[in-house]
Amino acid sequence: MKWLIFVVAAFLCWGSYGPTIHTGQKALGKPPASALQVFICVGMAYFLVAVVLPLIVMQVKGMEFSFNKQGVTWGTLAGVLGALGAFFVILSFMNGGTPRYVMPLVFAGAPIVNVIVTMVTEPPQGDINPLMYVGFVMAAAGAGMVLYFKPH
How far apart are CA 125 and CA 90, in angstroms? Predict the structure, then answer.
């Protein structure tokens, strides 16, 4: 269950991502360039956290530093998808979206896409429980309720 601590840390970080980046965009104050400028800041932070930090941890723990083509290909694709997702959030903010609308839609849609992609990349071993589809509807309805009843 130790992994659950990291899940909580991830959703706390990602749940704060939209409002934080939107605040940075407003603080830079030169729309639409400010949205792209704040994304450059995000990119620098990604480099520090996603490249420098793992290198330090691997060095300190004496971990092996070797790669293979398939791992590099999938890892790079994952990075591209993550960066594109963040870029699309920025573009949504540049085009009038705000965290109170954009992020609930992103975070309601992402689990649905995750399940579908996982089912393709790691096919289920048995029958699919029809309640999964109910979950898809509930995720969409939940996002709709969050948006409809959000504070103004």
Answer: 38
